[in-house]
Amino acid sequence: MDNFVCYICHAQKTLDFVHKHHKVPKSLGGSDGPDNLVSLCSGCHADTHTLARMMRNPKRVGEVRSAVQSMFPQGDVQARCVELANLANRSTVMSAGQKALDVEREIGVGLKLKKPYRDALQLIARDRGLSMANYTRKIIEDHIRRVYPNVGK
To answer: Would the pTM count as exceeding 0.90?
Structure first.
């Protein structure tokens, strides 16, 4: 680990004010090993996650540069924050996106997905905003309610 110095802004912090950030999220197979963890102060940790979400939203791509510049005035600090956000996004898009497409193929066969579910599938691929388990459960429950309206009554 990096001795309680924020990886992004290099501020020295005590143990109480340090967050451990996974470069590759655990939900996407990232480990708790030292190669996948960096210390971040709470402000940089929050900003990194905010930036990562902004970078995944195609409508907000133009805002990313100004957001980075306003959050972090120093160029080297900007680079480190963008590096972490990009790493998380690449992991998310490849892994979660693939899982989402697999679920759409396997569970979506024979089902007409309603717009909220199609939107949720896109969210999963971009932001992991809804877990695959919850998404799958909602599709199946909705399908059962439509096909078997008296089940559970």
So the answer is: no
